[in-house]
Records
---
Amino acid sequence: MAIKTRNFNVARQQASTNIELIWWVFMRVSGVLLVFLVLGHIYMNNILISNTSIDFDYVASRFSQPLYKVYDLVMLVLAMLHGTNGLRYIIDDYVHHDGWRNIVKYALYFVVAVLITTGTMLLFSFPFNKVGG
Amino acid sequence: MYRGREGQWAFYLHRITGVAILLYLLVHVGELTAAMFGSKYSNAILHFFHQPLFQLGLLTVIGAVLYHALNGLRILIMDFTSWGTRLQNKLWYGVLILFALLYVPTVIKILPEIFGGGGH
């Protein structure tokens, strides 16, 4: 059961399990990091340049730089886990039938696991030293 | 404090924008995965998503991220300060004002690119 509260001490009392409390903390820690990572990502790819100018060469040159590999990998994992856990709270609230709730949740976990995997493979399928187009 | 007032709108908007961002994220990672298979497939898919309809969707998602980020910071203030919950409705108006200040220039920058042809 999701924790619905306003501070850590009450969260600790309300938490049904230690895992649930860890997720409560994770949402806040990853949330702060994602504010900077995602807004930075949007700024770089939509404000500094036009999004419609993005092509394979641009993608390849970014993914070839070690700094962006780390940046994008951290952002990928944090955003996927933050989003999945958030949607898990929503599923708990709206899907009341036990069987369906589990089916929906595990379908979500499966899709996210596949995309974290392919996303990571994508980042490391480019060389580390390529600079420029 | 809650039902039908600022707090509830803040909460629902946080959920709706969160789901929208996650759905976008799933498509976004899937779309970029094509880059593993070379420039031919990658460029075809990137070009497909440069259509105005998808670019307008992207502009909306950027707005969703902006709201979700700012309201997320409001939640942190409520969680970790003694005064945050008491001022939550005022904080929400702060979120909306900051959102407008950041999103209006973003729209002004991006909207002409969508219909002006941008990079293509």
---
Amino acid sequence: MTTTDATAVERQIAMVLDLNKCLGCQTCTVACKKLWNRDSGTGYAYWNNVETQPGQGYPRRWQETGGRTADGAVKRGEIPALDTDYGRAWTFNHEEVRTGVGGGAGKPWLRPDGQPQWGPNWDEDRGAGEHPESNHYFYLPRLCNHCTHPACLDACPRRAIYKRREDGIVLVDQDRCYGYRFCVEACPYKKVFFDPQRNVSTKCIFCLPRIEEGVAPACARQCPGRLRFVGYLDDPAGPIWKLVEKWKVALPLHPELGLGPNVFYVPPVGPVAFDGAGRLVEDAPRIPNELLERLFGPRVHEALRTVREERARRRRGEPSELMDLLIAYDWNQSFRLPVRAREVL
Amino acid sequence: MTTRRSLTLTAAPPALSPGGYVPRAYADRVTPTTARVDFAAGEEGGAWTVALSWHAPRPVRALDGDPARFLDAAALLVPTTEAAQAMTMGAAEDPVEGILWRADGERPLRITATGWGTVVRQAAPAEWAADARWQDGFWYLTFRVGAWAPLARFRRLAVAIWQGAERERAGLKSVTPVWIQLP
């Protein structure tokens, strides 16, 4: 059953990502890409990407080009450019390297054809700050937030985007979509893509066929760092409710936009900064609080405080439900998804 | 008999677009990107021919795999009831239908609608055709639609033009503000 009324969902599926554990290995990116976007029309599209923050991200300047102002009002968004914002899917000189022909005097190196101007991991590990006192970065994996009030849904004049009533997953009805791309413009997370081969919008489907089998999305299941948790927001026995509602350490990205994202992040605690003499400065976080507040809102301070306190509790040898959960000793505990639609049980 | 006119177009009001985004994001879009279109329509042996030409300084004829490109396009609309309105793309009880040409060279499409956001595109009847050429900054487009019952009955037409270079699509278009009444 489907609905275009975003508030009419029966349950909301959600994901939590612990940024303290992300290695930036892109296994999630590859798992998603190989599963869903291998055809030429979406060669440039990454439903899941991992970007370095602070940074311009993917698509480039996504935090500036969406269809919402900083206080959540509608503004005209931008459609990212293929070459300078997304980055065209690269091709490489494999044949030249294989045969050794055409590379000039020396052995040819593997290199992309043409002159790429941007890509999904273009500014990896650059970060900000001054080495060694304050240089910093962390990895931010991003996917569709399956918002409670999706900007993409609001933008589609054809009502081709809807939230599934049973789990709140935001989907594009590609039979209704005529490729107008207001959804691409409006999404402030820039997580709706356009397939110019098929003239339709595409986006993360939260690995819908896997969810219906009780299996976590590929990005979550393949994560070597075990940083992703998947379940329902209203399930007090599941990891999502505990991290979001009980412990309040998992926060949505850019909550000020008012869309109600259902992907949540445990913010990175990060190490402390050095002073000029190379001594640790305990009260000076290396990742500036302002950066984290800009991404995750003012509640980030409380979340960081809770994580630090629970870490300290653990170090003292005391029990901590939160740390046990975040450590994810048994990955099966990270996902709590009932089998819902298996045809053969 | 052939009717020839130079028509003044207006920007279709974004406020009519369904959803919360387009009416607000494009509220300032009040000037048509295509101000005028030369129009000629005639019926011969029950078959209709409609010719349009308009200024298009930067024609877009292919997406070239680019998610930020939009095609030039044009459409004719006709009412299927006496009360059907062009500006609203018809209504539930008063549908409109038409023919849509896009500059990618594909066959034209038959469209039907019962209000904004309801357009349904279908393969056009075999006898429907659209021949276009771009020259010196202008599109010259001729629709040949054979016998077209609602046009023969009501003898009214509306025109819409989309400039791809201006990222026009859907309700972002230049249109004739009222039906063109044919003699």
